[in-house]
Amino acid sequence: MGNTMRGVIAFIPSNTCQKYLLGDLEEMPIDKMVDLSSMQLRRFPLRVCAFTELVKLYLSDNNLSNLPPELELLQNLQILALDFNNFKLLPLVVCSLKQLSILYLGNNHIRDLPQELSSLKNLHTLWIESNYLTHLPVVICELTLLKTFHVGCNPIHNIPKELKSLKELRSIWMSGSLLTEFPPVLLEMPFVEVIDVDRNGIRYFPSLVHLTGLKLVIYDHNPCRNAPKVAKGVRRVGRWSEETPEPKKKFEVEVEQEKAEESKETEPAASNEIPAMKSDNPQEATSSLS
């Protein structure tokens, strides 16, 4: 079925048309997973709420802007994908899914997150990239088991200091944001393993040597004049990360010039003696001096 046809049928709320879109979705799938991605859905199919043992629900790439309260029946749900839809607010019913561990909210129109999000005590992965967040909601700092956090491509300028309370956080992805400085709070989080601040406006990077858990830092496409210093074994992705030296600061250049001038003044006069030439063949060395 083509996307154009799906789009037309999605406007018709009759049960017949919805069944046409959903196919033979009548019984609980054996793998406890329902994938309704790219179905041009404009309303959530209520029949899915009857599958109370459902563990994974994928609703990516549809035209959804709300969810029914009946979704609360899916108390065994662990993975919920709502990315690439038309959500302006996170439906509060999502916050009632206590077993949820992975939540995808990327590519919507979300400007903030509700305080009720803190109810998701088992959440360890949150993707909310490419939304309209102008600040990082502090409620995220209450998700104590959060390990992976993707908040890139949002117009965020800074990160709240409360983030350091997330002791389980291992990777934070903030590429394509509006950071003008490296978030100071990350300097107090030695347990973080991956930091991505690619494509921001950071002009200077502090030393990250003391971050003992760090394994990877991505800092490319920033107007910086230095690479972040890291401990041995930490991979850096960005300018001057490998062999290419960083540009010298002005005072460093001046110091080198002064040293060069001093060495010229104290340089001894050239000797008249002919230096010994290196050669593996003694005869060649002798003939060259004759």
TrEMBL record:
Pfam families: LRR_1, LRR_4. Residues 236-290 are annotated as: Disordered. Residues 239-267 have a biased composition (Basic and acidic residues). The keyword Membrane does not apply. Keywords: Leucine-rich repeat, Repeat. SUPFAM superfamilies: L domain-like. The keyword Lipid biosynthesis does not apply. Residues 280-290 have a biased composition (Polar residues). GO terms for cellular component: cytoplasm. This is Leucine-rich repeat-containing protein 10. The lineage of its organism: Eukaryota, Metazoa, Chordata, Craniata, Vertebrata.
